[in-house]
Every structure is written in structure tokens, then in C-alpha cells.
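Problem statement: downstream parser choked on a complex file, so we are re-checking the raw output for the AR6 run. The parser issue turned out to be on our end (a line-ending mismatch), but while we're here, posting the original submission so the record is complete.
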Amino acid sequence: MSVMSVNNFELNVLNSKILLQKGDITKEATDAIVNAANNYLTPGGGVSGAIHRAAGPELAKECAKLGGCKTGEAKITLGYNLPAKYVIHTVGPVYSGKPSDKAYLEQCYKNSLLLADKKGLESISFPSISTGIFGYPVKEAAKIAINAIYDFLKTINSSQQSSLKIVKMILFSDSDFEEYKHAALQLKNKI
Ligand code: AR6
């Protein structure tokens, strides 16, 4: 485990690592980027709108054939004009304050990672799912995201050799980056 510069934070988990970075996910050249989608897999606004704009219209055409996506589940498409080869679309919960919010958000990270592993991908980048238009408080969402990614990597790497080596969280603002770093430091102090 090592702490890097101000806009980068790294946490090693057996053979893989979690990397926190400030940035724009549409610029990421990881094997897959994750989209914070809606149940209909239509472009929408926020990070999803940005991903669809950068990928080009073919992405929405492929999405339209997938029959939607339930909250907490994940579906994969090609990345078209994006630097990433694939887009994994997952639908976060609209924040309601109920305990089910946490379970759905955990499922988003877990199901996206499962899909990436099944496809044999080595690297994946996530945005901060549900914390924009869907209103999930960033402090809580950051803790859930970091713990879900860590639990997934620890479990899969201890039972088999996973293809996944790098899991990035791409945070759009300084304050989001600080919240995710805080959550990662808390986890680091516990393990
Ligand atoms: N790169 C990285 N993160 C970004 C970028 C970017 N280019 N653009 C925005 N973010 P949101 P949600 C951050 O609202 O809350 C859509 O309309 C943003 O600052 O995109 O899951 C869908 O169709 C925030 O921290 O996703 C759904 O209807 C984070 O991405 C709904 O919004 C997530 O914000 C999903 O809402």
C-alpha cells in the first residue's frame, strides 16, 4: 500500500490495485469505463451524456437493443469512438435514505467488476455512481464504493487468478476526490 501525490491515491489488493484519480472518464484508455446509466439505457445527462457524446451515436444504437437494465445490474457494449474498448453500463439507485440504497450501490460495483472479469479485462474505470443527478451523498457513496471494490478484489484474487489488475475511480471534482481518498484511508487503517 502506498500514498502517492495529491491527485492520485493507490491501494494494493493482492495482485491488483485500486487507483483514485481526479479526471474525465471519457478520456480513460482502460479496457472498460463504467457508465452511470438509467434503466432505459438512454444517453441522459451527467457522465452518461458525456460518455455518449464522446462515443458517438453507435453507442445509443447498441444500448437500445439491450432491453434496459435493472437498478444494481450491469450490461456491456463496445466503446466506439472512446479510448476505452468497452462501456459497462450500470444503474445506481436514486437516493431515498432507505437501507436498500446501499445494497443497490454495492451491486453496481460488484456486477460491473464481475462482467469485466468474465470478459477477461485487465483494467476498468468507474465514475462516482449515483452521486450526481441521483442524489446519493458523496461521503456515504465513497465508503460503499471503495469497500465494495476492495471486497470484490480480495475475494476473487484469493479464490482464483482474476484478469483484473487495475480498478480506477475517476473523480470529477477536488471535493469528490478528497471524499474517496478519505474512504480509502479509513479502509487502509482497518486492513
Ligand atoms: N467524468 C467523470 N465523472 C463525471 C463526468 C466525467 N466526464 N461527468 C460527470 N461526472 P451523474 P448519477 C460525475 O449525474 O447520479 C443520467 O442522466 C458527476 O460529477 O452522471 O448516477 C443518467 O441517464 C458525479 O460525481 O450520475 C441517469 O438518469 C458522477 O459523475 C442519471 O443521470 C455521477 O453523476 C444517473 O445519475
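For whoever reads this later: The longest strand covers residues 16-22.
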